[in-house]
Amino acid sequence: MKFPCRLDKFISHLAEMPRTQARASIKRKEVSVNGEIITSHNFQLSQQDEVLHQGTPLVFLGKRYYMLNKPVGYVCANSDELHKTVFDLLDEPNMSDFHVAGRLDIDTTGLVIITNDGDWSHKITSPKSNKFKTYLVETQEPITDEALEQLRTGVMLHNEKDLTRPAIAERLANYGLRLSISEGKYHQVKRMLYAVDNKVVELHREQIAGIKLDENLASGEYRLLTADEIKL
Ligand code: URA
Question: Does domain 5-58 bear CATH number 3.30.1440.10?
Fold first, then answer.
């Protein structure tokens, strides 16, 4: 939400009601700003204004950033007709203008960041920012030295014009590697492994830029990012 903000938009967002209901409520003289009843839905609010709706203070909570340990079976979308979404796991007020900064597939687990700060999420997800995302990958076939070398140099994905950017690839076991990439193409990790004649069996994201998934978060749990993490 940006300030100055129209009164009906503010009420609609914070009292969680459609804009038409917010306008009707304003007309019914249920809204005051700094102690004065306001009946115009066009009224422009500044962030310092004190707004009461039916006697209850409405306070904009500002920019918020959450890290979630995503389980399998949840989609990274605001709503979905078929599946549960990551927003079903967040019990927080006024989430309507939040989004996922860097989506994961339904069968991928691990670090997801959810925020209402579009500029910030653009900075961490845009390929131009060159921020690395790190994944633990379990594969169907053993990981060969040749495949590691190809991933490090860049591979050609189906339907793409350019090689992937150089990745950091480290073997962890015969069937496991840690892979860090600085792009976010559709199904990129799965397609990269496919390009080296392998297949992803399990995928887990452990880091985005400098932000590591908190190991105290069980699957499905979340917490606010710390001020230091937001700076990263
Ligand atoms: N790459 C994928 O293939 N899937 C994800 O969920 C994330 C990266």
Answer: no
Pick the atom of ligand 1 nearest to 133's CA.
Answer: 8
- In terms of CATH architecture, what is 61-126+214-232? 2-Layer Sandwich (3.30)
Catalytic site residues?
105
What is the bridge-based pairing of β-strands 200-208 and 211-212?
antiparallel
Task: Check the CA dihedral 215-170-123-69 and report its sign.
Answer: negative
* CB 199 near ligand 1, within 6 Å: no
How far is 116 from 1, CA to CA, in rounded Å? 8
Ligand 1, closest atom to CA 200? 3
Tens of pLDDT, residue by residue over 183-219, are 999 999 999 999 999 999 999 999 999 999 999 999 9
Domain ranges of the chain: 5-58, 61-126+214-232, 132-208
pTM confidence score: 0.89
* CA of 108 relative to ligand 1 center, distance in Å: 7
